[in-house]
Amino acid sequence: MKRIIGTIIAAAAALVIQSVSAEQVQAQASSGGCTLEQIGGTARHLVRCRGGLSITTEQGAQYTLLDRTATGSVDAVRLTGKALLIDLPENVPSSGLEVVTPQAIAAVRGTQWAVDVEQDATSVFVVRGAVAVSRRAGGAGVVLGPGEGVDVDESGAALEVRRWPAARVNALMARFGR
Predict the structure, then answer these.
(1) C-alpha pair distances (Å), 32 with each of 36, 68, 110
(2) Nearest CA among 163, 105, 104 for reference residue 96
(3) Is the separation of the CB atoms in 164 and 150 below 8 Å?
(4) How many independent structural domains does the chain possess?
């Protein structure tokens, strides 16, 4: 009986945390000229921002939208956990977008790409376009094209661009319902 009550309390606490988190994200999205939509019956969200930027969030993604240039538009995202699928079309005027994770900085214009943060590494994969990726600590960066990815850890080793196998791409995209 104690085990059942403990499980119920833990589940209720998780719901409260998700509710507060969703409210914080909604407030943050609004302040950056964005809207937040829940994706039909899932815990994923779609953030649509000025300039054509759209971000699909994995359930439980931990991120902050930033307007570092004080223009009223999102120009950067701080991602500390889980994954985001970002779409910034080529044909819309934009100053680009930068995603900053504990291990990496990925910057782009006119592309679709995913950034996934795990405990000790960041993975970046490009669906369409090109993305420049470098370590936060500095050093030589790489540019990824369609179908390419890179894993950035804290080892300091040279970044290695790889064509990702279909199974890895499919597993990542499934996290966004694609």
Answers:
(1) 11, 10, 19
(2) 105
(3) no
(4) 1
Cα–Cα distances (Å) from 171 to 23, 33, 114, in that order, read: 29, 31, 12
pLDDT digits (tens, 9 = 90+) for 22-77: 555 555 555 568 999 999 889 899 999 988 899 999 999 999 999 988 888 898 99
The encoded tokens of residue 8 equal: 């119920």
Looking at this protein, which amino acid is placed at residue 50?
R
Reference 34, options 77, 82, 69; nearest CA is 77
Element (H, E) at 17: helix 2-31
Q: Name the residue range of residue 32's domain.
A: 2-174
pTM value is 0.79
Domain holding 138: CATH number?
2.60.120.1440
The residue behind tokens 């420049």 is 132
